[in-house]
Design brief:
- The protein is α+β, with helices and mostly antiparallel strands.
- The protein is built from five helices and seven strands.
- α2 (about 55-70) packs across α4 (about 120-135).
- The protein starts with 8 loop residues before the first strand and ends with a strand.
- The model is unreliable at about 40-50 (pLDDT under 50).
Length: about 180
């Protein structure tokens, strides 16, 4: 997109706030927002993770969350910021299904699993941190072979917005 996607306004609401509304609708109140300077609890400045992709953000947020809450919540919901159609029911379903699998649950759009629409168990997040430390940067590769539940979701609800054309139908305000 050429800009911080979290701050894009879609019909007057930022993409980040759209995702946070779905999170609130799912009843989640303990939040860490990673990867943007516009986030009140951003961990983007963490020297360990910097701006090295989604796995780095997950690891930074996990490290921060472990310092805040003992024991950490189980599961931990992980969501990308560019999910403008996400709804709370998908998050609730991920949380419920994750408890039946050792590593958690991921949403599936009919073509493939979406590891940035997921509810991970602490063991999975610890494994992500270890993988990150050894040089891995892909959430998908990191989680290959894990015991993850699959939540089949409407592809339109869990679609991410990667290009301006993905936002057709919204009145988009670009940051200045």
């Amino acid at each position: 997109m050429g800009t911080d996607k979290a701050s894009l306004l879609l019909d007057g609401v930022s993409m980040q706030d759209r995702v946070l509304a779905a999170v609130a609708g799912a009843g989640i109140t303990n939040l860490i927002v990673a990867g943007t300077e516009h986030a009140p609890d951003a961990v983007a400045g963490d020297d360990q993770v910097g701006s090295q992709g989604p796995l780095a953000g997950i690891v930074g947020a996990w490290n921060t969350l472990r310092l805040r809450t003992e024991p950490p919540a189980d599961p931990i919901v992980v969501l990308a910021c560019d999910l403008p159609w996400l709804v709370a029911s998908v998050i609730r379903q991920l949380m419920a299904d994750s408890r039946r699998h050792s590593h958690g649950a991921v949403a599936h759009d009919g073509d493939r699993a979406q590891p940035l629409v997921a509810a991970y168990r602490p063991v999975a997040l610890d494994a992500m941190a270890t993988s990150f430390q050894t040089g891995e940067r892909s959430v998908r590769r990191c989680s290959a072979g894990w015991d993850l539940g699959v939540v089949n979701a409407d592809p339109g609800v869990i679609a991410d917005a990667d290009t301006p054309s993905d936002l057709a139908g919204f009145a988009v305000q670009w940051p200045s």
